[in-house]
Amino acid sequence: MNWIIRSIKKVKFHTNLSEVLKPIWDNLAVYRWILTDLDFISDQLLPINFDEDFFVLDNIEFEKLYHSNTQIIWGIISAVPNNIESDSSLISKLSAEDSIVWEPDQFLVPESILEIIALDSGYTVVKFKDKNLSDTFKEYFQEQAIDLQKFNEKYRTGA
User: Fold this and answer.
1) Per-residue model confidence (pLDDT) at position 7
2) For 115-149, how does the pLDDT look when each residue is reduced to its tens digit (9 = 90+)?
3) Neighbours of 66 (CB within 10 A)
4) Phi/psi of residue 35, each to 5°?
5) Which helix (H) or strand (E) holds 63?
6) Would you give the DSSP letter of residue 99?
7) Which residue(s) pair with 127 in the sheet?
8) Residue 120: burial class (beta carbons within 10 Å; 0-12, 13-18, 19+)
């Protein structure tokens, strides 16, 4: 239930959230979104900026980002249940460069049900705790969604 996308056949660019989340978007309305360690390009006014270390967005705020033509170059995007309060001192210190990113089933935000890690406009790691969401994602992206463990074995051996 851990995938990496490095081919951009179904996405215009890494990491365009409207394209990455397209197959599962309708199932995500009940979550809050934590975004941290961000670098992005957008020509629209968004509920994120470069003034803060992290953002916690409700679904309406996140939907603005989802519908925008924003490229997430770098960062961690996590969907968490609405009733969960996350530790802001922990969130502000998270980094997409953490080695946990490459470890299957390991989440930077432990409360996440879905975690997207954008890595320098070249890779998008997507991790799920919900098998149905993961299966829908994989079915949509097919061969473009590579199993993270298999990717690690092939390309990151000794890393």
Assistant:
1) 65
2) 999 998 778 999 999 999 999 999 999 999 999 99
3) 19
4) -125, 130
5) helix 59-66
6) G
7) 2, 115
8) exposed
